[in-house]
Task: inverse folding
């Protein structure tokens, strides 16, 4: 089902459907009760050059021979390969161009998921940023918010900056990092002052300890004190070691090294010969042992037994050595042991004045020597480390004398003690410093107590900032929860606290720039954008579309020719030829079909345009005779009249408008009475189809050349769903809708309103005289008034030959091939008609002076009256003139009245609206329109960010600019008012914004819109978002150039205007 409101291209849509079906080899039956509807569709088919495949039969009264000849002409059709190739190339070229154009439109309209904006709005929003900031870390922090949430967040974020700006030095304020529960109190101030005092005390203590170390080691750095403190402890040496310093003043460390080595060597030899020494009795005479060593140095045998010396030495040996090994090694070892002991004793005497050693007490001797070696080694190590770590003062003292050494050792102990004390002070200071963790979250890692004291002092001085920060923190926590942001305060401290500009500018600029970069870099279509290329594509599309439109006509014929030559039933050709040649007694179509020509006739002319009655008279009652049946003006087709036609088809398309005239029994009787109340609204095919089948609404309105002519019906009956192009004037300007209040006009049921009829007829003839190249129609609200107008015309032409000539010319007026002659009809019979100028006569009025206006306006004030009014109010293409003999305010139009009798109220509102438009009372006219509920296009309209920015820039340049021009679903983004005639628009501006994105087809977006606007008198300039984003100033200059060419408008007194003046001078 196709809902076709007035002027929505219903007939053209039907012709397009028929052409499509014919191209696919389908048989089509087009049905309408009204002959004008059949003629309109046939004439449109003729305009498309496809009428040769159609049969138009109004009734059984037709020239049968000519009809059959037209069938025979079709039998000569033959396909053309060249035409088929050209059609294929045209289609391919058009599809390619549309694909490219739609790719750019799709790329702009696509939504960026991260920002929630269309790509176009995103690009334009980025261009609005005055300063460009890109902080990637900021983007990652807020990347979960879309643009709308960023905007809402920015409002709160800006308040935080305003709060914190009250801090004297925000970026250095220690309270920026305060703990949430820390607020300014006297106790807090007391604790902070105590903390500062502790650091000051620590400073004094450390100074005192440093003085002790300086006195001991000299004035050196703390690092050297630390190194001295690392020296291994070495106790003071007793005085017996003084000899060591006395003998080794020149090189104590070398002497120590030599002494240690000597002691170790002597001790080693002592250990080596210990067993030999111990094998000799303790009180042995060393000389005897020596003699035995010499005697046994040679081997002794049996011969020596006879020597007295042998036996004497043997006795001596047995006395001093009870366990002899048979050699002299025990005696030699004894000697070497004593020599080593003597050497040790001498060495000991060299550094220790109180040495007491016993040669027979080996263990004690060894222990003492090892002790001395260890002590000397410690002294050597101490002196070695001291050489690296001690100050010169301490080093000289240590090496100078035993007393100096012992003083140095004592000094080291003092330094170590001082360092320990300093460490304790530092630990306490660190413990106190850690107390700041109770107050702030980001405690600085200061180690110097003077810096710490200064920092705490700054905290004390900036306590007033704490109150500000507390308020800011409360706001921060609120918006952290609201916008799901982690550690916003940390982000502020890291990225925003040092920023001098508005934080919101940094945030929005960063988000928009990164979003836009992501979009453009990821989309080749946007990256390759060029205004010249897009304009070239649009021009190419328009040319290709026109060529394709013309080529489609030939394609329909080629499709027929291919079917006819490849597979056809030619059996009926002889019969058709014979009947075509007859001069009389020619068989009727029904008869020739019954004789066997039906199949051939259906193949040669697969489209039949007929009324329900002629279908029943001519076509056989054969099920599925047609593939599809199309009902036009279905709201006026009774169900019982349609059933026989429906039976003959496989598929049905119902076209009509349930807001227009229904089938009724009104005026069907022999006597016509405008006051008759007893009439029925009978169900139509459209009514029943709307209950079962899905429907499509034809939204675009083409008929009315002025928006004011369709605006009322659009709002009152279609909820604003129709799309009608506005005019380059305010809706109330231009004179397209005029209300004429007739004085002293009275209505009687016998003769109608004769005064109104006479005034109307005089005006009608004057209009015909002034504009003879227009078509005219007169609609009366009742039959009595229609009769009164006819009588007034008869009187006029009877007495005025010039009026008769004008009248006859108007009656014979043609609009191309279509009859567009003057008519006078009552509103029941006007559906389907259209004329350039419609004159509407209300007729109804008080019956006599002083009489009250009856709220009875015939069928207009009864059920279904609104549908009749809709038909009458939408017949005009250029002008509508309403004649009425009473003030429209006489009919109540409030909501209470509407609820009681909506049809009457709608009629009253229409008269009020007509008068408001005629009086150029735009406010009242819009109030009337807005009194009806709206839906569809109008309810969703709002200016895009792009259009609003263009508007702002143009207004800065001195122009008056209106947005969203239109009130009937068709909107122009911006209109620049004429500087003198403020109700007119000098230039319309289309942005590739909401309208561009919401129009899915290139044909609607880039061809029909522009064609409609030009037909309404608009001059249109288009601005592309990417051009605007790159260089909006150049685009403004281009718009100014376009304005200069419209009506000698002077350049504005602005910087851009000055540039234009220079350009004009050069040209």
Result:
């Amino acid at each position: 089902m196709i809902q076709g409101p007035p002027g929505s291209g219903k007939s053209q849509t039907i012709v397009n459907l028929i052409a499509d079906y014919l191209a696919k080899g389908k048989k089509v039956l087009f049905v309408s009760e009204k002959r004008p509807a059949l003629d309109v569709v046939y004439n449109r088919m003729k305009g498309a050059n496809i009428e040769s495949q159609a049969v138009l039969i109004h009734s059984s009264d037709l020239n049968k021979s000519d009809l059959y000849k037209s069938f025979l002409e079709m039998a000569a059709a033959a396909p053309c390969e060249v035409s088929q190739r050209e059609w294929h190339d045209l289609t391919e070229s058009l599809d390619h161009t549309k694909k490219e154009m739609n790719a750019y439109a799709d790329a702009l309209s696509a939504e960026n998921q991260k920002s929630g904006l269309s790509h176009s709005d995103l690009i334009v929003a980025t261009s609005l940023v005055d300063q460009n900031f890109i902080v990637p870390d900021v983007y990652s922090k807020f990347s979960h918010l879309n643009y709308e949430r960023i905007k809402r967040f920015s409002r709160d974020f800006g308040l935080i900056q305003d709060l914190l700006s009250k801090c004297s030095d925000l970026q250095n304020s220690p309270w920026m990092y305060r703990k949430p529960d820390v607020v300014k109190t006297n106790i807090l101030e007391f604790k902070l002052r105590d903390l500062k005092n502790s650091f000051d005390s620590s400073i004094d203590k450390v100074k005192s300890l440093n003085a002790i170390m300086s006195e001991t080691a000299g004035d050196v750095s703390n690092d050297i004190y630390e190194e001295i403190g690392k020296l291994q402890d070495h106790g003071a040496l007793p005085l017996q070691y003084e000899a060591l310093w006395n003998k080794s003043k020149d090189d104590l460390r070398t002497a120590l090294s030599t002494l240690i080595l000597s002691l170790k060597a002597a001790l080693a030899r002592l250990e080596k010969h210990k067993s030999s020494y111990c094998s000799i009795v303790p009180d042995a005479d060393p000389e005897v042992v020596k003699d035995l060593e010499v005697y046994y140095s040679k081997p002794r045998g049996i011969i020596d037994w006879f020597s007295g010396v042998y036996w004497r030495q043997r006795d001596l040996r047995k006395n001093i050595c009870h366990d002899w090994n048979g050699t002299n090694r025990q005696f030699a070892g004894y000697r070497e042991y004593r020599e080593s002991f003597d050497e040790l004793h001498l060495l000991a005497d060299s550094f220790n004045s109180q040495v007491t050693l016993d040669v027979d007490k080996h263990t004690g001797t060894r222990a003492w020597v090892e002790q001395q070696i260890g002590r000397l080694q410690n002294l050597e190590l101490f002196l070695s480390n001291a050489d690296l770590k001690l100050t010169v003062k301490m080093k000289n003292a240590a090496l100078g004398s035993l007393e100096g050494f012992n003083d140095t050792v004592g000094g080291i102990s003092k330094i170590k003690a001082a360092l320990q004390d300093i460490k304790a002070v530092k630990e306490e200071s660190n413990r106190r410093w850690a107390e700041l963790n109770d107050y702030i979250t980001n405690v600085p890692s200061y180690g110097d107590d003077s810096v710490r004291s200064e920092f705490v002092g700054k905290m004390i001085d900036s306590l007033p900032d704490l109150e500000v920060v507390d308020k800011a923190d409360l706001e921060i926590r609120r918006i952290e929860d609201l916008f799901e942001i982690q550690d916003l305060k940390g982000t502020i401290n890291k990225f925003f606290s040092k920023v001098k500009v508005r934080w919101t500018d940094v945030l929005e600029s960063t988000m928009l720039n990164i979003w836009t970069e992501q979009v453009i870099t990821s989309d080749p279509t946007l990256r390759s954008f060029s205004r010249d290329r897009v304009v070239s594509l649009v021009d190419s599309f328009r040319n290709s579309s026109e060529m394709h439109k013309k080529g489609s006509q030939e394609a329909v014929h080629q499709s027929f020719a291919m079917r006819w030559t490849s597979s056809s039933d030619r059996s009926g050709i002889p019969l058709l030829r014979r009947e075509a040649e007859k001069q009389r007694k020619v068989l009727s179509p029904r008869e020739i079909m019954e004789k066997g020509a039906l199949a051939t006739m259906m193949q040669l002319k697969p489209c039949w345009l007929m009324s329900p009655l002629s279908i029943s008279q001519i076509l056989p009652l054969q099920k599925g005779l047609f593939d599809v049946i199309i009902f036009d003006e279905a709201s006026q087709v009774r169900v019982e009249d349609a059933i026989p036609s429906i039976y003959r088809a496989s598929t049905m398309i119902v076209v009509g408008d349930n807001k227009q005239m229904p089938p009724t029994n009104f005026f069907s009787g022999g006597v016509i009475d405008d006051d008759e109340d007893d009439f029925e609204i009978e169900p139509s095919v459209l009514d029943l189809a709307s209950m079962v089948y899905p429907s499509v609404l034809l939204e675009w309105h083409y008929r009315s050349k002025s928006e004011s002519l369709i605006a009322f019906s659009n709002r009152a009956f279609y909820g604003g769903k129709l799309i009608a192009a506005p005019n380059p004037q305010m809706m109330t300007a231009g004179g397209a809708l005029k209300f004429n209040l007739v004085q002293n006009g009275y209505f009687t049921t016998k003769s109608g309103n004769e005064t109104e009829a006479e005034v109307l007829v005089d005006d009608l003839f004057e209009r015909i005289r002034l504009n003879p190249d227009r078509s005219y129609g007169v609609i009366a609200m009742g039959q009595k008034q229609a009769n009164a107008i006819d009588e007034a015309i008869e009187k006029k032409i009877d007495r005025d030959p010039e009026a008769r000539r004008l009248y006859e010319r108007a009656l014979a007026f043609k609009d191309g091939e279509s009859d567009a002659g003057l008519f006078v009809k009552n509103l029941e019979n006007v559906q389907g008609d259209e004329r350039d100028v419609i004159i509407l006569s209300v007729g109804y009025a008080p019956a006599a002076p002083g009489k009250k206006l009856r709220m009875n306006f015939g069928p207009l004030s009864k059920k279904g009256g609104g549908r009749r009014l809709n038909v009458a109010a939408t017949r005009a293409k250029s002008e509508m003139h309403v004649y009425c003999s009473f003030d429209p305010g006489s009919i109540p139009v409030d909501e209470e009245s509407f609820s009681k009798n909506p049809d009457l109220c709608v009629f009253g509102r229409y008269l009020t609206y007509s008068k408001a438009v005629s009086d150029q009372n735009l406010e009242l006219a819009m109030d009337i329109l807005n009194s009806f509920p709206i839906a569809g296009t109008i309810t969703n309209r709002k200016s895009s960010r792009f259009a609003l920015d263009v508007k702002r820039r143009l207004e800065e340049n001195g122009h008056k600019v209106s947005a969203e021009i239109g009130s009937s679903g068709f909107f122009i983004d911006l209109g620049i008012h004429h500087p003198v005639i403020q109700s007119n628009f000098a230039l319309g501006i289309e942005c590739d914004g909401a309208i561009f994105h919401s129009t899915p087809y290139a044909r609607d977006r880039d061809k029909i819109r522009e064609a409609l606007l030009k037909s309404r008198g608009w001059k249109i300039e288009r601005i592309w978002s990417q051009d605007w984003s790159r260089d909006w100033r150049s685009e403004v200059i281009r718009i100014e150039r376009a304005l200069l060419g419209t009506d000698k408008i002077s350049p504005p007194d602005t910087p851009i205007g000055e540039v234009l003046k220079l350009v004009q001078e050069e040209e």
